[in-house]
Design a protein that fits this description.
Elements: E1 15-21, E2 26-32, H1 38-47, E3 62-66, H2 69-87, E4 96-104, E5 127-133, E6 141-147, H3 157-173, E7 188-195, E8 200-205, E9 210-213, E10 229-236
Antiparallel strand pairs: 1-2, 2-8, 3-4, 4-10, 5-8, 5-10, 6-7, 6-9
Length: 237
């Protein structure tokens, strides 16, 4: 094994649970004890140069930097068969991937309107989100939502126009509170949640409405060893 890859090996004794959320019964995987040496990824983040935060530039409320390539390769090799079985996707063949280490640093008053609402990453059901928590339960987790007006829990190409039109009309009349979304609101109902835990991975389709749950007392630290650090990987089937 190369020195570059050392520290990012997958733990063969990982623990996996599969369940579904909402009326649409979307699959969600929760995998614990993923890496043999998870602290190595935290230390890699602590040594990395994170790009400047761009408030409102995308849905992510903070800093990002590319994840180490050996980590991404190992994660893909281990998870590909599991994802294929759970989501009915090909277990072989080339796919595209992107992965970033991420630190949530934006305070509520800095959030753009879209960052105060649940979102979907793409309407393409072939994109899978792999969210690796490198922080503890004090940093919240990830919640999944149903849009009350449309009843949508996922946003597909056929639903996209109707969803956007409904949400734009609602938020124009009632702008979202200047805060991270926390549980049920007038516009959205929470239908599921994955609690953050160190070295836990959550896997779900990117078209599922979701939002970061920042916990009761978020620190918004830019220190990778103490902040809300995650590795966010997308697999494009």
């Amino acid at each position: 094994m190369s020195e570059e890859a050392r520290g990012f090996e997958i733990n063969p004794g990982w623990e996996i649970r599969a369940y579904t959320v909402g009326r649409e019964q979307e699959p969600v995987l929760v995998i614990d004890k993923v890496l043999a040496e998870p602290q190595a990824l935290v230390e890699a983040a602590a040594a990395a140069n994170f790009g400047a935060v761009k408030p409102g530039g995308n849905f992510y409320p903070g800093l990002r930097t590319p994840a180490p390539k050996p980590y991404v390769r190992n994660l893909h090799a281990a998870l590909r068969p599991v994802i294929a079985a759970a989501f009915g996707l090909p277990s072989e063949g080339m796919i595209k991937m992107s992965s970033a280490l991420s630190l949530a640093t934006l305070k509520p008053q800095e959030l753009a309107p879209a960052q105060r609402l649940p979102h979907f990453d793409t309407a393409d059901g072939g994109q899978i989100a792999v969210l690796h928590y490198l922080c503890g339960p004090e940093h919240g987790g990830t919640a999944f939502y149903r849009h009350r007006a449309t009843g949508f829990e996922t946003v597909t190409p056929g639903r996209l126009a109707a969803y956007v039109a409904a949400l734009e009309a609602e938020t124009a009349a009632r702008p979202p509170a200047q805060d991270y979304i926390r549980g049920d609101t007038e516009l959205f109902e929470q239908i599921g949640r994955v609690e953050a835990a160190f070295d836990r991975v959550a896997v779900y389709r990117s078209h599922l409405l979701h939002a970061g749950d920042m916990g009761p007392s978020p620190a918004f630290s830019s220190d990778a060893r103490h902040g809300r650090l995650t590795a966010n990987t997308f697999l494009f089937f």
